[in-house]
Structures are given as C-alpha cells and as structure tokens.
Amino acid sequence: MKIDDIDHIYRDGRHYDCLFGDPDMSFWLNIVATYGTPILELGCGTGKITIPLAEADCKITGIDLSEAMLEHARAKTQNRNLPVCFKLGDMTEFKEEEKFKTIILPSNNLAHLMDYREAEKCFRAVFNHLDDDGAFVIDAFVPAISILSKSSDDVETLSEYDDPDGEGKIEVTATAIYENHLQIRRVTTFHTRSDGTVSKGYLNMRMYFPQELEALLNHCGFEVTEKHGNYQKDQVSSNSIKQIIVAKKKERANQSE
Ligand SMILES: C[S@@+](CC[C@H](N)C(=O)[O-])C[C@H]1O[C@@H](n2cnc3c(N)ncnc32)[C@H](O)[C@@H]1O
Asked: Which end of the chain has fewer beta carbons closer than 10 Å to its terminal beta carbon, N or C?
C-alpha cells in the first residue's frame, strides 16, 4: 500500500483528531460489556475508540492501513501500560493468532470497502477471527438520497479547528459527486489556512444500502441479530441516519433464538 492510496484526511493523525468529534463511548462500552473481550477494531485510526476502551481495561487490538494515524495513536498511549496493540494492517486481509469476542467496524469505516468483493473479503476475515459466540458490530450511515443527489457545486463546511502546528485556524469545506453505478461518493476537501493558502484532499466512500449489507453478511455466514438507528438503540426507521448492526455466526444466532 502506497501513501497515494490512503485518503488525504488519514495522512496526519493530529489533523484528523481536530477534524472530527469524539465517539459515543457509552455506546461502545455497553457493546463490550454485552459481548466481551478481547476486541478487534477494524480501522482504528488514531484510537478515538480504541484508547477509551483500553482505559476501561478492555483488551483491544486495532488495525489500520495508515501508518500516520497509528503513529499518533501510539504516541497517545506511550508509557501508559494499556491493554492495547496497534497494528498496521488491511481489514480485507488480516491474520491474527487469537480469536475475538467482539469485532467492531465503527465510524462508517464500512465505506472504505470499495466494492462488494472487498466487503466479502473483510467479512470472511472477520468470520475467521470471531469467537463462535462472538459479535460483529458495524456502525455505518444509511446512504441518504437527499445527500447523494446534491449538486457538485454545493459546498459543505465540515469543520474549523486550530492548526496543531500553531499556524492559526484551518477551515475544511467539501464538494462531492456521486457515481450511481459504483455507489461511490467522491469527496474533494479544501483545507483553507489563515494565510489564505488552500490545499485539496480526496476521500472516496462506498455506500452500502441496508438490504445489500444484510445480504452480504448473510452470504458470508452471518445472521443479523440486532439493528439500531442510533446510539440510543432506537429501532431503525425510514428516518434513521445510521444503521448499527450486530451480526453473529449463523448457527449460533439460530441457537439463541
Ligand atoms: C473514519 S476513520 C475512523 C478512525 C477511528 N475508528 C475513529 O473512530 O476515529 C477510518 C480509518 O480507517 C482506515 N482504513 C481505511 N481503509 C482501511 C483498510 N482497508 N484497512 C484498515 N484500515 C483502513 C483509515 O486509515 C482511517 O484511519
């Protein structure tokens, strides 16, 4: 994997941490209390979820494709003796010695699986690493037609934050096009600094529609046992922004019915 293949916002963990808010840790702590440890996180980035789980004494391994993101995660945990291990790896082809009680694909990381073949490779690797009674938890957005159909001229403000190098503010705006036939939203980000200089970045996100996702999971040996529309675990409805899925190995899911 070359640096050119990594989306721009994942090339500096310090900027990534400023760009996005903090995760809903009460949700993730509850997931782990229900399904157990050890945990494997796919696409752990700078450890926004990984580190608070390790701080709660949950044994966790995080894998990520971006060395820059992992470097920042490791810096945050240095000399802290937490039960966490950050590894460079690809969620479509990882190989770990141990099996996991809970495997999580959080933060809409599903969108980084660019087609159904990549999703299938990832889900099969998850199946092979999941304890027979374990749970695979996916937290992703429901593709919203109102967003996908926006004009490529629409400029959305994503964030404004203080430059971690102390060079003033950075405003991040974005435009996007949606490729219907590939189900990929191609986002261009514009990072405007206080001195007026602008740098561009690119981010590609594959959209997974709910029925397609469930069919893919089924195809890879999973049964969806829970579906929530938000972190409060409300039922999914046509207004839900999120699809939060718990899937189990088929034979086990049927046994517990
Ligand atoms: C949206 S970020 C989420 C990071 C972290 N989970 C969080 O909540 O802040 C997505 C992460 O997935 C990683 N990623 C993208 N494709 C990947 C792949 N094929 N295998 C492993 N990690 C990948 C990116 O490098 C990035 O760190």
From this structure: C
